[in-house]
Amino acid sequence: MRRLDCSAFDSTALLDACVGELDAQADVDRFVAARADLVQDYEEYATLAKRRELFSAQSFLHGNADQIVRGAISKEDLTALYSDIMVGKKGTARKVYDQLMALPAHSNCPYCGLGQVFTLDHFLAKSRYPQFSVLCENLVACCETCNKIMSGGVATADNVALHPYFEDVAVENTTWLTATLNETAPASVTYSVAPGATWAPELTQRVRNHFGQLKLAARYAVAAANELASNVDVLCLIGSSVDIQSHLAKWAQGLTQHSPNSWRAALYRALAASDWYAEGGYGAHAGHC
């Protein structure tokens, strides 16, 4: 997970921009009447997120689009601000959508680090938390796969994952993703998490939730298998096991400095530590070297 900074965004201004693009004056009037309540919801979200307690936010029933959320505003009214105005129109709100989409460096998904940014994910699902449908702090640019996998259910202390806008720097700077090299033909890798020993239990839980919910063990293993296959010819050219280990160690060092919990950093740490791999394990199937 890579942290993102959305502090420059004004969610209240986004709400006003969305409401301002509604076609019917009656709809505008209903939102204006409920505005103070929605702004209070936004303030509560920030407070709970900073406390790592978003699971305490008020949730609503799945379905039942006519549920009243605030004032005379229904669930459908709120979710339509996102789908019809923020995404569907080309006004001020859409510009904010595009700016949020541009936050991840190199369009790399901040949740998994594998896919390309494709859409905005509602960290707290709008189907359950419609009051946060156009809250900037609840909208995270991510890849299509992560967006589909992310739970649309009610957040609890046992399932809430890492939030790119609110996590402590320790999530990025402390190495917690590990890869175990399997001495098979061809070589394969198993990924797991080992959170910091001094971490608070709730941070450890969120890291485990994040890893498990996004199915990162399986997804990273597939990415690693492709990386290992592409490495074979290069390592054959290097030849010497000593030179190969030096090569792998440099990759591990550089990738870890850049992002210690990326799947590639964990992979190369495991490869650099393996005598078996450097001494020919990288080509441990017929037809190589």
From TrEMBL:
InterPro entries recorded: HNH_nuc
Source organism, top-level taxon: Bacteria
Protein name per UniProt: HNH endonuclease
Species per Swiss-Prot/TrEMBL record: Hydrogenophaga laconesensis
Lineage per the UniProt record: Bacteria, Pseudomonadati, Pseudomonadota, Betaproteobacteria, Burkholderiales
